[in-house]
Design a protein that fits this description.
The structure holds three protein chains of three kinds.
Chain A lengths: L9 H12 L6 H28 L5 E7 L9 E6 L1 H24 L6 H20 L3 H19 L6 H32 L4 H11 L5 H17 L8 H4 L5 H10 L4 H8 L1 H6 L1 H24 L3 H21 L3 H28 L17 H15 L5 H14 L5 H27 L29 H16 L8 H4 L9 H22 L6 H12 L1 H11 L4 H19 L4 H21 L6 H21 L1
Antiparallel strand pairs in A: 1-2
Helix pairs in contact in A: 1-2, 1-4, 2-3, 2-4, 3-4, 3-10, 3-15, 3-19, 4-5, 5-6, 6-8, 8-11, 8-13, 10-15, 13-14, 13-18, 13-23, 14-15, 14-17, 14-18, 15-16, 15-17, 15-19, 16-18, 16-19, 17-18, 18-21, 22-23
Chain B lengths: L3 E2 H21 L3 H26 L3 H31 L13
Helix pairs in contact in B: 1-2, 2-3
Chain C lengths: L1 H20 L3 H21 L3 H26 L2 H11 L6 H18 L5 E2 L6 H9 L3 H22 L2
The chains are: A mainly alpha, B mainly alpha, C mainly alpha.
Chain lengths: ~625, ~100, ~160
Amino acid sequence: MLDWIGLLPVFPSAGFLALVLTRGRLPRRIAGIIGVGSVALSFLLAAVISVEFLNSGLESHTQVLWVWMSVGNFSPGFSFYLDGLTVVMLLIITGVGFLIHLYSTGFMADDPGFARFFGYMNLFIASMLVLVLADNLVLLYLGWEGVGLCSYLLIGFWYTNPANGYAARKAFVVTRVGDTSMAIGLFLLFSQLGTLNIQEILTVAPLQWSSGSGVAVAAAALLLGGAVGKSAQLPLQTWLPDAMAGPTPISALIHAATMVTAGVYLIARAHVLFELAPSVQLLVAFVGLLTLLMAGFTALTQRDIKRILAYSTVSQIGYMFLALGVGAWSAAVFHLMTHAFFKALLFLAAGTVILSLHHEHDIFRMGGMRKKLPLAFWSFIIGSAALTALPFTSGFYSKDAILLAALEQPQYGMLLWLGGVLGAFLTAVYSFRLVFVVFFGEQHVDAEQQQIHGHDDHHHGPVHEITGFAMAAPLVILAVLSVIGGLISVPVENVFGAHEEPHASTLIHGFMIAVPIIGVLISYLLYSGVKQGASLQQMLSSVRASKIGSALNRFWFSGWGMDTLYDTLFVKPFVALAHVNRRDLIDQFYGLLAALVRIGNQAVVLTQTGYLRWYAISLIGGLVIVIGIGVWA
Amino acid sequence: MPSIPYEHGLILAAILFVCGLVGVLTRRNIVFVLMSLEIMLNACGLAFVVASARWGHADGQIMFLMILTLAAAEVAVGLGLIIQMYRRFHTVDISVLNEMKG
Amino acid sequence: MMLLFYLAGAVALISTVAVITSSNVVHALVYLIISLLSVAVIFFALGAPFAAMLEAIVYAGAIMVLFLFVMMMLNLGQATEDQEKAWLRPRLWIGPAILVLVLLVQLVTVLLTQQVDLAPREVGVRELSLLLFGPWLLAVELASMLLLAGLIAAYHIAKK
């Protein structure tokens, strides 16, 4: 079965081709079956492969499909590489992907672009599988670009609204900056090491480069640039909140569980390079720390339910970067897995809420929904608990592993740990803020029924939860995984080398448990509208109303002003330059050619007068000339 | 019989041809243009017969027969066209036939 | 014979010039008939009686008469004649005359290089018809097809 690795991306690709080539003429049932079925097949195959892999003693396995190109010394193949890390990613992608596809059959049931949606989703799964299975960096880059393309297509899925197209373009352009950095990194690696095969790089690089040498630092930094773009970390994090313009299932799949973790995967894969450049590795940790704090503060001020979850994703990936930065590779991958579970759960539950409330996104226009939307309520409770790392949830184990590893760092351990704990506090506050505002307190929705404009085919009546089997089953399964996921151990020992479990004192442990619980409590007092928290609520309102408070509020709300910063630094000068170059010089040259031809035509057309005698005279004139040449020349 | 300078015959044919040519180039009445065309054809026939007389065989006369046939067919069709033109434009001025310009 | 040849040549020339400078259609047609008949005389003088007969009967006799019929049918009238007179101003002839004179000079230059003096031998009908039914048979057939095509075309084009 291990030899059938090559089949894994084939199922979703076939699904994509079938759905796209029939151009939406398939009936909905068939399109849904193709879309979900292809991913289900990949999941089954991945499960079988994983079982076989685990039973075979965790040996890595390479399968070469064909040689892609052969130029001089450079001949990367379309070849797939399987080891523990790959297995984890495979199961996440196909498993969570399958659940989200299933959910989408319910969520997108009324959408006219149903088949197109599943086509793009299948293409995404195929590209992501190629990305994680690739055994050389060129193939990885192919998958990288593929997921970027699908992200663009899916964010701008409802393309008739220009704002969605703008968000899609923004995502594409910002990640492109990262992709360029990564491409330059690939060029550097090839020119220095002569190969782009990942395993070869990891064995050759330590022999050729000394630790901290300029080349290693440059290569690692360039790869970091690519990872930062795709994973929406500082400074390229501005695209992710706007990417929420797409349908909720794709926010769950692409912008929570899989694509944004591609950067984490890249750094984990190339961990040897980062170990060779300790300065860059430290930079990774600090990028993660700053991002998680920034996103945490921003999420506190947001009103749109999906934007809160988006900033939460940015923050959690910051945690993964923090773990990578301190060398806790398996902890990072573990957190990647648990995050996939609970973040997908949260997004899907948010989708249920949005759909049930007729496409309402503002949390302060909801409220008191816990009786009306029970499944979504419990999903949010479980998901937020895992997100906050409350004890015995999956998030608890993974986040604790990261923070303990951060503490071990020789120079900045304490700083990183404190930052991580502060981030955990913020996570608790904003995630439970969301839960309490939406599900507790006064119900705002009924009073505003007349002003809510949703799809015309929804009945405007009392709020009822929109679920079916397709939408409920994934929520339940993901909820279960969010709780028990902490017990799964990721089989990555062979990839990263054996790692000692960090030990810490009970005080540290206790502190790490207590902080999120305190955060939940504070959030409860502030946002659930109970009387006990009245004094705290008043304090918050007065702070918010004060000059500094409101300024801070606006600053954090706008994502720390980064959008405006990039706008002034890059967008405005570029647009101004484009305006200046409106009468493009090169275009004018080609216009000149066309004008010359037109003038020539106007000149020659003068000979076509339509008069018989004119033609006769020109005929005879020509004859005379020719005969003259014959007779006298 | 006394000899005839054959080049004079050919020169006569050339002069007749040139007269017909100047008629085609100058006249505005389509009937006259057709007549000038006939003059030119006749001049060619003369040239052929003079040449065949010089060599003493009948091939030139046969050629002349062909030219005659050609002239007959051409005149028939040409006159048909003139009739149509007159019906359409009520004039025989060839300047009205200029829609193919440009 | 020489006298006949030159005389007929002169008549042909004068009547041709008269054709192209005339302003009355019918007059021009009659002048053209005279020109054709004088060319027939030239053919006689050159010892090609059959060609002369063809010229007189077919060309002058049939084709020109057809021309005359159509002109009578069109009934162009005095107005056309006046119009012709108005168009035919002397300075109109200058351009074409120059062009054509150049051509004439070129032709004459070439033709005067040949100096041939031979007595004409009469090429009779018998000799001609032997050639027609022998080597030139295909040409005869093609000529008949051409006439057929001309007939059909003329009928079709000229009808209302």
